[in-house]
UniProtKB/TrEMBL annotation:
<keyword id="KW-0173">Coenzyme A biosynthesis</keyword>
<dbReference type="GO" id="GO:0004140">
    <property type="term" value="F:dephospho-CoA kinase activity"/>
</dbReference>
<dbReference type="GO" id="GO:0015937">
    <property type="term" value="P:coenzyme A biosynthetic process"/>
</dbReference>
<keyword id="KW-0808">Transferase</keyword>
<keyword id="KW-0963">Cytoplasm</keyword>
<feature type="binding site">
    <location>
        <begin position="12"/>
        <end position="17"/>
    </location>
    <ligand>
        <name>ATP</name>
    </ligand>
</feature>
<dbReference type="GO" id="GO:0005524">
    <property type="term" value="F:ATP binding"/>
</dbReference>
<keyword id="KW-0067">ATP-binding</keyword>
<keyword id="KW-0418">Kinase</keyword>
<keyword id="KW-0547">Nucleotide-binding</keyword>
<dbReference type="Pfam" id="PF01121">
    <property type="entry name" value="CoaE"/>
</dbReference>
<dbReference type="InterPro" id="IPR001977">
    <property type="entry name" value="Depp_CoAkinase"/>
</dbReference>
<comment type="function">
    <text>Catalyzes the phosphorylation of the 3'-hydroxyl group of dephosphocoenzyme A to form coenzyme A.</text>
</comment>
<dbReference type="GO" id="GO:0005737">
    <property type="term" value="C:cytoplasm"/>
</dbReference>
<dbReference type="InterPro" id="IPR027417">
    <property type="entry name" value="P-loop_NTPase"/>
</dbReference>
<comment type="similarity">
    <text>Belongs to the CoaE family.</text>
</comment>
<protein>
    <recommendedName>
        <fullName>Dephospho-CoA kinase</fullName>
        <ecNumber>2.7.1.24</ecNumber>
    </recommendedName>
</protein>
């Protein structure tokens, strides 16, 4: 029986790094962020629906999605963020479970659901195990500002739009703390992979 492992964390917590390390070790990843980007590609159904809701202001001149503009609209307005989720979450949900079904047919031992909104979008109840990648608030803020070029205000808006890491940790089966350096993170992931290979999860 295939076990579904939910992998989540906060923005700039290092979740994607953990996901990539698991992928490199041969575990199948269902990546909600990658799915979202495909669903929001130029001329896609998802993007057309977003334009209907938010207007053509969210488009670049080449008709691709301007993610910064969309983020500026939704991350300081809960009602608009809810509208974004109403459009995108059903499309994302369908594609996630289509991929899970594909891997289950192969009778793989584990499938990793890499979903930033694992709890908020109600995927957690469908997981056999939940891993949360956490980081202290100041490190998270600095990483996000450095990585995305955000101002402190913009970075805090995006962090505050998500469930707090403290709440996510309370619902986790396994917590990976990424407040340290890359070597420390890799050691924690290596321990996780060892448990998976010996079917201890």
């Amino acid at each position: 029986m295939t076990k579904i492992i939910g992998l989540t964390g906060g923005i700039a917590s290092g979740k994607s790094t953990v996901s990539n390390l698991l992928r490199l070790s041969g575990y199948p990843i269902v990546d909600a962020d990658q799915i979202t980007r495909r669903l929001q590609a130029a001329h896609s159904k998802g993007l057309e629906q977003l334009v209907t809701v938010f207007g053509e202001q969210i488009l670049n001149p080449d008709q691709t999605l301007n993610r910064y503009t969309l983020g500026s609209i939704v991350f300081n307005d809960q009602e608009k963020l809810n509208k974004l989720n109403i459009v995108m979450q059903p499309l994302i949900y369908d594609e996630i479970w289509r991929q899970v079904k594909h891997y289950r047919k192969q009778q793989l031992p584990y499938v990793i659901l890499d979903v930033p909104l694992l709890f908020e979008a109600n995927y957690a109840n469908d997981c056999d195990l939940i891993i949360v990648v956490t980081v202290d608030r100041q490190t998270q803020l600095q990483r996000l500002m450095h990585r995305n070029g955000y101002s402190k205000f913009d970075a805090e808006q995006r962090i505050n739009s998500q469930m707090s890491l403290a709440k996510k940790e309370k619902r986790a089966d396994i917590v990976i703390n990424n407040s340290g350096n890359r070597d420390e993170l890799e050691r924690q992931v290596a321990n996780l992979i060892d448990q998976m290979r010996h079917h201890k999860l």
